[in-house]
Amino acid sequence: MDPISDLLLKKAKQLDFDSKKSELEIIQTELSRLHDTSVKLLKINTDRSILVTANSAAKATELRFQQVELLEIINSAVTKPITAVRIIIK
Length: 90
Fold this sequence. Notes:
The chain is of the alpha+beta class. Helix content is 59%, strand content 20%. It is built from three helices and three strands. The protein has a three-stranded mixed beta sheet with strand order 1-2-3. The chain starts with a helix and ends with a strand. The mean pLDDT is 85.
C-alpha cells in the first residue's frame, strides 16, 4: 500500500475508536443519571449488547426489571441501537 492509503486507514481507525469512546461515555452518563454510582458500564460487546456491573444483588434485580425501559433510554441517546443489557454483580 502507498503511504497515503496507510495514513487514511490509520485515521479511519482513530475516528472509529473515538466514536466508540464517546458512545461509552454517553451510556455511562445515562446509567449514572438513572442509578447513581452503583451501576458501571464495562464494555459494549460486538453483538451490541452492553455489560454492566451492579454493586448488589438488589440493584441487579432492579436493573433486570427495568431492562426494557433502560434500553429505550440508552437507544435514544446513541446512534447504533443496543440490543441487550447483561448484568453482573461485583
